[in-house]
Amino acid sequence: MDKTIERSFFKAYSFGGVLHMCFDWMMKKYDLGFYLNREDEKKAQNKPPEEWEKFYDEILPQRIKEAIEAFDRSVIESIDSPLMDEIAGNLDECQNDMQRERYVFSLLKPFKEYSDKFHPISEIKKLKGEVKGIVGIKDTEQDLGYWNSILPNEPAAACKEYIEECKYRIERTNFVANRYRELLGSSNTERWLQDGTVENCMSTLRHYLFMFARRLDALLLERGINLLWYQNECGIYLYEDRCISHVMDYIGSYELASKYIEEALPKYPESQSENDMILPSELDTEKARKYFTKAIEAGYIKRNNSGYKWEYGGNKGQVRLGYFCSKVYDTQPRPINKLETTFGVKKLSASITSASYDAKTASVKQWKKEINDTIFND
Questions:
Q1: What does the DSSP assignment read for 214-280?
Q2: Would you state the pLDDT for residue 270?
Q3: How far apart are CA 43 and CA 315, in angstroms?
Q4: pLDDT (average), residues 310-326
Q5: Cβ contacts of residue 61 below 8 Å, gap of 6+?
Q6: Domain boundary residue, one of 211, 229, 263
Q7: Would you say 102 and 125 are in contact if contact means Cβ atoms under 8 Å apart?
Q8: Rounded to 5 degrees, what are φ and ψ at 147?
Q9: What is the rounded distance in angstroms from the CA atom of residue 40 to the CA atom of residue 71?
Q10: Whole-number Cα distances in Å, 352 to 173, 349, 357
Q11: Domains in the chain: how many in total?
Q12: Looking at 245, 263, 281, which one is the last position of a domain?
C-alpha cells in the first residue's frame, strides 16, 4: 500500500502534531484540562513559571501558526483529491475482510485525541460502565447495593464516592467538548475568525477534518462500508452522526446516497440500532436520554445508520417532532443544528414554533395529548 500522502496529512492530527499543540494551548488558555473531581477543579491554579508563560504566550502560538502555513490542504480540498484517490487504491488492494477492517481502523487512529475532546462518546460510555472490562457507574452501583446489605460503612462510602466522581467526570467531559465547539465557531467569540490566532488555526484544522470525514464516509459507502459502525467499534469518532446532505454530493445524488446508507455493512446490532440510547454530546442530557428512550419504546423514534428518524405522524410528523424537541430541550439556546442533523430534517426551528401555538383543532389537541400521555407522563 502507498501511504505517502496519507501519512503527511495525518501527521497534523496525530499525537505530537499541530492539532495536539493547539489542544495544549487551549487547555492552558481556557482551563480545559482534566480534573479528577469537583474539589480538584475548585482549587486555585498555581501561577506557572515565567518561562512557561512566555512559551504559551509567544513561542507555542508562533509554532502553531508556522505549522498551519505549511499544512498541505490541497490534497483534500478539490474534487480530484490525491488523498482520497490514494485511500481508494489502498482499499481496493485489501485481499480480505480482515485486511480491509484493519485498514479502515488505521484511517481513524490518528484522530483519537480529537475524538476524545470533541466527541467523547467512548469516554462517557466507560464512565457509565457500558464498556466491558472497565468499571464505571453501573458496576459500582451493583457493588454499592451489595455492601449496603452486609457492611454499610467504608466499602459503601468508597462506592458512593467513586460514583459521584464518575458523574462529575461525565459532566466535565461534556462541558469541555461543548466549550471547544463554542470557541471554534458556535459562539459570538471572534478570535477563531482572526488570522493567526490559535483558535483560527485550530478551526482551520477542524474544517479540513470535517471535509475528510465526509469524503471518507462517501468513499466507504460506495464500497458498502459503514463508517459509523467502525467508529463505534474502535471508539474514535470523526463525527457522531451522518447527514445525507454531507455525502450525497460526493456520491452523486440523494437517491444513491440513501441506497448506499441503507445497504452499508456492518450494520448496528439490532439491540443497539433500535433500543440503545446513543446521543451526540450536544444532545446528551439525562432528561433527553429519558424521553428519547420512552419515544423509542413507543415507536415514535427509530434509530438508523444515520442517527434517528421520527416515525409518529408519517409525512406530517415534523411538527410533532418539533413539539417533542421543544419539551425535551426547553431552555435557550436549543441545539437546533444538531437536532436537524440527528433526525435528518430541515427547518426544525419553524416546526418548534408551530408546535408551541395553542392547539385549535381537535386533531392537533389529540396528537399533543397522545405524546404527553405516552412520553411526558411523569
A1: HHHHHHHHHTTB-HHHHHHHHT--S-SS--HHHHHHHHS-HHHHHHHHHH-BSPPPHHHHHTS----
A2: 45
A3: 54
A4: 91
A5: 25, 197, 198
A6: 263
A7: no
A8: -70, -35
A9: 38
A10: 29, 5, 9
A11: 2
A12: 263
- pTM exceeds 0.85: no
Q: Which residues contact 55 (CB under 8 A, 6 or more apart)?
A: none
Task: Provide the residue range defining the domain that includes 38.
Answer: 4-125+172-263
Give the separation between CA 179 and CA 2, rounded to whole angstroms.
38
Is residue 287 scored above 50 in pLDDT? Answer: yes
Three-state DSSP class for 30?
helix
Does 46 score more than 80 pLDDT?
Answer: no
Q: Torsion-angle region of residue 307: left (phi > 0), alpha (psi -120 to 50) or beta?
A: left
* pLDDT band per the 50, 70, 90 thresholds, residue 305: low
C-alpha cell at 41: 477543579
How confident is the prediction for the chain on average, in pLDDT? 88
How many angstroms separate the CA atoms of 360 and 302, rounded?
29
Distance CA 335, CA 212 (A): 24
| In a domain? residue 153 | no
First to last CA, the chain: 58
Alpha-carbon distance values, 283 to 121, 200, 227, 239, 273 (Å): 12, 26, 21, 14, 18
Contact 108, 238 (CB under 8 A): yes
Whole-Å CA distances, 125 to 26, 91, 229: 25, 30, 16
| Rounded average pLDDT over 227-240 | 92
307, 182: one domain: no
